[in-house]
Description:
Blueprint: H1 2-7, H2 11-15, H3 27-39, H4 43-65, H5 70-76, H6 89-111, H7 113-117, H8 121-139, H9 153-156, H10 161-165, H11 185-200, H12 218-225, H13 238-245
Amino acid sequence: MALILGLAPNLMMLLVLPFYVAARPLSPFLYLIGGLFALRAKPTLAYLLFPLIALIDFGLVVMVAFHLPLGAAIQSVRYMASLDLTSSVFYVVVISLFIANGVAIACLVNHNRQVLRGASLLPGALVAFSVVMLERHINRPFLKQPADSFESALSINGIDAAAVANGGRNLLFVMVEGLGAFSSPEHTAILSRRLQPALDTGRYELSSGLSNFEGSTTGAEIPRTLRTMGRSHRLSSPDQLRLLSGRHG
């Protein structure tokens, strides 16, 4: 039980530890539970059950690797039909390895059904728990705590829900998404020059800096990918741009 349902399903991920350490707190136990179910069902069911668990394992690895919230990950499954995974050799190879691993575990379980039925569950559960703790222990030194807080434009200007609700007028938020800090001061100056007319009015201040961040931006990109955002407005006309910069007459 310990070797076939505890160690063997996780052996592939243990072998890639020098290259990538996945966070899989559920997967080892899914294989164990699937094995218990397969031993009480027909042998052919194992060849469907374990590849399915392997695909779930792959999905959980991807979800954690990209810091996908569970809700966004589940919702994204609806759009899998529109993705061509075969266009990526990497994804084809990785998914094939997971499925092959599932088929191999099914073969092992069916070949040793009589032995496994009389074996104790405890050794397999202990090995599965050990795999989870090993991955967690190796991952821990690489986890960095983000900054407790960072100074935002909203806090600087005292804008909160109560201030907006009691303001008695409409409030326009202009959210500009950046791709990171400029590595060259010359590039920063190009952006500053474009904003200089608005700065000359005295109504705005321009500041820049860095804030600590740990994780993936995938969660922020998912709403746009899944088209779950509300209405957005593209500001392109001269009148709209002058209105934003405060230069309207």
